[in-house]
């Protein structure tokens, strides 16, 4: 434990020096930044493959086009972070705070976002194929044109969000909250909507009768 603390302190000291010039484009693959304050840091185009960022503070950090493939971001704070075009394939983002984060056209294929917070996030054109979004809070978010094919959204709170033109083919939306959500033009072929909740303000690509035939609950 002491060695880990000592190594962490050395890493923090090194980071303080590196932050002066920024970390954009740096090779940081496999590095341990667990619990480190990286708020407002420029990490654009950085290589963070397999990096340890558990509980790191990345508030308002610039991660544009960063490579975070298989990175561990469990319980990290990414509030208002810029992740536009970032690669997060297979990354662990469970219980991560992504409130107001910009994930436009980011790749989150196979990513673990269980119980994460994506409220007010920008997810236009984002790839979330087969991502784990169970129990995730995605309220008032923009997912226009997002790819959610076979994504796991069981029990997710999707209220107030925009899913216009999103691909939800084969997605699991059981027990999801779709109240006030806009799914106009969304592709839902093969999606499991059993006990998904909707209301009169939910916009669906099919009628209320069809929704109830699919097992959805009007509430």
Fold blueprint:
Layout: H1 2-21, E1 197-198, H2 208-213, E2 217-218
Parallel strand pairs: 1-2
Description:
- Helices cover 12% and strands 2% of the residues.
- The protein contains 2 helices and 2 strands; from the N terminus they run αβαβ.
- It has helices at residues 2-21, 208-213, and strands spanning 197-198, 217-218.
- A two-stranded parallel sheet has the order 1-2.
- The longest helix is centred in the N-terminal third of the chain and has 20 residues, at 2-21.
- The protein is elongated and about 60 Å long.
- The mean pLDDT is 94.
What features would you highlight for this structure?
single chain, about 220 residues, 2 helices, about 0% strand
The topology string of helices and strands comes to: HEHE
**What is the straight-line distance between the termini?**
52 Å
Count the helices. How many? 2
User: What kind of sheet is the major sheet?
Assistant: 2 strands, parallel
What is the C-alpha radius of gyration, as a whole number of Å? Answer: 18 Å
Mean pLDDT: 94
Strands of the largest sheet, in order across it?
Answer: 1-2
Coarse shape: elongated
Provide the helix percentage: 10-25%
Number of strands: 2
Residue ranges: pLDDT <50 for 5 or more in a row?
A: none
Class computed from helices, strands and strand pairing: little secondary structure
Proportion of strand residues? under 5%
């Amino acid at each position: 434990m002491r060695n880990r603390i000592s190594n962490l302190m050395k890493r923090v000291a090194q980071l303080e020096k590196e932050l002066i010039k920024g970390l954009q484009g740096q090779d940081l693959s496999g590095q341990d930044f667990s619990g480190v304050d990286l708020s407002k840091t420029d990490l654009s185009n950085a290589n963070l493959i397999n990096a340890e960022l558990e509980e790191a503070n990345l508030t308002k950090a610039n991660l544009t086009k960063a490579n975070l493939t298989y990175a561990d971001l469990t319980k990290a704070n990414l509030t208002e972070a810029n992740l536009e075009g970032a690669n997060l394939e297979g990354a662990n983002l469970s219980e991560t705070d992504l409130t107001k984060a910009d994930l436009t056209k980011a790749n989150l294929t196979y990513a673990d976002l269980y119980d994460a917070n994506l409220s007010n996030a920008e997810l236009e054109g984002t790839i979330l194929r087969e991502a784990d979004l169970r129990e995730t809070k995605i309220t008032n978010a923009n997912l226009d044109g997002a790819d959610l094919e076979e994504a796991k959204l069981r029990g997710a709170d999707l209220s107030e969000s925009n899913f216009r033109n999103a691909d939800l083919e084969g997605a699991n939306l059981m027990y999801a909250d779709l109240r006030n959500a806009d799914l106009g033009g969304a592709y839902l072929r093969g999606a499991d909507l059993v006990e998904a909740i909707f209301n009169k303000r939910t916009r669906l690509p099919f009628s209320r009768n069809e929704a109830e035939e699919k097992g959805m609950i009007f509430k």
